[in-house]
Amino acid sequence: MFNLNQPPLAVRRAVRAAAAVALTCLALGPAFAEGPLTIYSGQHEALAQSLADAFTAETGIAVTLRVGKDAEIANQLIEEGAGTPADVVISEEPGPVAMLDGRGLLAPVDAATLAQVDQRLVPGSGNWLPYAARSRVIFYNPTLIDVTELPHSILDLARPEWKGRFAYAPSGAFASTVSYLISDIGPDATLEWLKGIKANGGNEGKNGKVRDTVEAGQHPFGLSNHYYWWILANTRGGPDELTSRIYYFDHPDAGGLLLPSGAAVLKASDDQATGQRFLAWLGSPTGGQRVVADYVAAPQFPVAPGVDSVADLPKVSELTFPTVDPDVFIDLSAAMDLILEAGIY
Q1: What Rg, from alpha-carbon coordinates, does the chain have?
Q2: DSSP tag of 108
């Protein structure tokens, strides 16, 4: 505070100094007044870091990134509650961010931000932004099975004729598939399907091993996420170096679910404006969506119309998948209970 009893010259100097600081703030722009932004991330670390770096480069807003597994990040935010230092959370799976939404921990996303992305993936609550997506697919080995011989639906895999012919892994995406089936065909039918999957399929434990065993010819086909195949292709010198191929369902089937990664501003954040600015950038065709499109190590689908991956992925607009409100993934506990009840570990 100024001392109004000080000599007039000192007062004038103090005023000029304060004005200089104010002008410096204006010259530096929004980045001077906003941030730093703290983001908790369950997304692949390399992609999350690329997003953080690009946002900082474009806006000047510093980002503190804390990375971990989706479930760990979600549980930490629940534990921290109103005392969390996080401003934003980004997930790989829809389940964790939807669960945080169900706990009332997320702030509504600006409508203009949600309008930037494929509306089929936007949750009914409007409290988180889909910013990338992974497709459930079938990896198949054409030396063992022709694409025309693949099952019409993954529900068919509980039938005896498919015994010993496919691989699967009880991953987070598998649990999301089960959660969708509970909402679509009911828990009893879903449990019977899971028992059939256990009886007929080979549980390889991890999606990467599903991919590797199909590539090696140990299984004719397997259920997984599209990008695992691309991870292997990148290490082998490109898609043409692989024997296996990806099948995207040409009709709405649980085996072709498009699972969005989610981003949200925490209600507890004391910098709501910067958090919303990050989400707007993340959904922008010239911002975060371009970063997602350029990420080739484990390519995911950009979800803004008109933005396509630089990898040889189909356009999201060309994919056929069940339309489901991502809020169905708020509570995966029922899915996990059924998976365990079926004896799948």
Answers
A1: 24
A2: P
| CATH hierarchy code of domain 135-257+332-341 | 3.40.190.10
Q: Where in the chain is the domain with CATH 3.40.190.10?
A: 30-133+259-313, 135-257+332-341
- pLDDT (tens digit per residue) in 84-113: 999 999 999 999 999 999 999 999 999 999
Say how far residue 260 (Cα) sits from the centre of its chain. Answer: 5
Q: At residue 17, what are phi and psi to the nearest 5 degrees?
A: -65, -40
CB 117 within 8 A of CB 129: yes
Residues 184-203 pLDDT 10s: 999 999 999 999 999 999 99
Domain 30-133+259-313: give its CATH code. 3.40.190.10
The pLDDT assigned to 331 comes to: 86
Longest dimension (CA), the chain: 96
Q: pTM of this prediction?
A: 0.87
Tell me the C-alpha distance between 196 and 149, whole Å.
Answer: 19
> Both tokens of residue 213?
């065993």
Distance CA 332, CA 290 (A): 31
CB distance 110 to 103 below 8 Å: no
